[in-house]
Amino acid sequence: MHQDAYDPAEFWSRDQIEATQLTRLKNVVARVYKKNAFYRKRLDEAGVSPESIRSLDDIERIPFTTKDDLRSQYPLGLVIVPEEELVRLHCSSGTTGTPVAIAHTQNDLNTWADLMARCLHMVGVRREDVFQNMSGYGLFTGGLGIHSGAERLGCMTIPAGPGNTARQIKLVKDFHTTVAHILPSYALILGERIREMGENPADLPLRIAVVGAEPYTAAFRQRIEDLFNMKVYNSYGLSEMNGPGVAFECQEQNGLHIWEDAYFAEIVDPETGRHVAPGEVGELVMTTLVREGMPILRYRTRDLTRFLPGTCPCGRLHHRMDRILGRSDDMFICKGVNIYPQQIEDVLMKFPEVGRNYLILLDNDNVGDILRVQVEIREEYFVEDLRVLRGLQNRIAHALRSEILVTPRIELVQSNSLPVSDGKAVRFKDQRNSK
Ligand code: AMP
Ligand code: ZN
């Protein structure tokens, strides 16, 4: 086994990966076809029999599964094992409508914990580390999912949950926490609060943070790394594919390896559904290859990314994807221009004056769309001299204009004045129809 491997599958050759994928793909199609009425009907309609899957290219013949499909099968319509074999339920975060429920067998939980442990091991986490999970627990998979992986690896694992900065710091100090899992939006809030308490986040024993569950830019990562003097690794996952442990950065910090022995990943044009050319941006589509209780075929994640070309210096041949560049349903159109909230964050984070939080608001009046960006300014820059603040406002507006081609109204607000959430951050509000 490769000396850096937690699991030998990490360093498989492409031939090994692809041969395993084909065996598992055939297996999953055969199982859902036999055991699930929804999938059988779908596959029959598309003229796909399990025997007709002969190569990995045949996956393109399988119909997609969308979030609406999963909702239509709520609560357990897609489960293919007897219900008494289920041991855990999670739901995906969604603000409105019927949730999506994902149920797991004990084997599913074991493979998930193994995958998650593999991710943590890859970035240098070891059993000697103390792991503090600062994400929410409950139905959200970033709680128990990451927790089980850290325990599986053998770390002492602290289920701290988010919020309560004073307790968070006390735990870090008292138990000498070396690794944390934290949402990007909360990482900066935590850092700023520690500073306000007169302490330097960089003095804490944290050396690694696993950061994910919501999109963030490279500039945002840099900020977190600098603030805490630790390494930050991007962690990607979604409830429909278990949760965290789907794709993870290695120590090169250059793209996220997708664990292809467990998932089949494709990138498609969101309009046509066809595979994009190699290296082009499109929507990530994923198939579970090993899930027992509730397999999902060709799930449309809505997440936009691309496969990165070339091989990774770390030696792992599992394809790498770029950090999530946005969601196909995230984009908004303002004055006819397509804009992704990530583009705005990218510009904002380059200003040292900009604090930890921002909010993009889209309104309209009888002339047209109005794009406003409320930006928290760090305490030390929030001076009384109006000219200085005006200057800053203009610089931000200009920088944004050259990125998104629309000039937004910039509203500078004080630190800690924008709403924060315990879970995923709300960065964008479209208020155009609410008037
Ligand atoms: P949930 O199933 O509720 O955990 O939400 C999953 C969604 O969170 C994904 O489809 C992504 O949109 C987002 N997400 C998770 N991890 C990341 C990440 N590292 N970067 C960007 N977005 C992420
Ligand atoms: Zn790598």
TrEMBL record:
Entry keyword Membrane = no
UniProt signal peptide: none
Q: Which InterPro entries has this protein been placed in?
A: Adenylate-forming_Reductase, AMP-bd_C_sf, AMP-dep_Lig_C, AMP-dep_synth/lig_dom, ANL_N_sf, PA_CoA_ligase
Record keyword Ligase present: yes
- For this UniProt record, give its keywords in alphabetical order, as a comma-separated list: Ligase, Nucleotide-binding, Phosphopantetheine, Phosphoprotein
Query: What are the residue boundaries of the AMP-dependent synthetase/ligase domain, all occurrences included?
Result: 77-286
Pathway stated in the Swiss-Prot or TrEMBL entry: Aromatic compound metabolism; phenylacetate degradation
Annotated GO biological process: phenylacetate catabolic process
Q: Which reaction does it catalyse?
A: 2-phenylacetate + ATP + CoA = phenylacetyl-CoA + AMP + diphosphate
Q: Which molecular function GO terms apply here?
A: nucleotide binding; phenylacetate-CoA ligase activity
Pfam families given in the database record: AMP-binding, AMP-binding_C_2
Domain AMP-dependent ligase C-terminal: where?
336-432
EC code(s) of this entry:
6.2.1.30
Q: Which family does it belong to?
A: Belongs to the phenylacetyl-CoA ligase family.
Outline what the protein does. Catalyzes the activation of phenylacetic acid (PA) to phenylacetyl-CoA (PA-CoA).
Q: Report quaternary structure and partners.
A: Monomer.
The entry's protein name is Phenylacetate-coenzyme A ligase
Organism listed in the record: Candidatus Desulfovibrio intestinipullorum
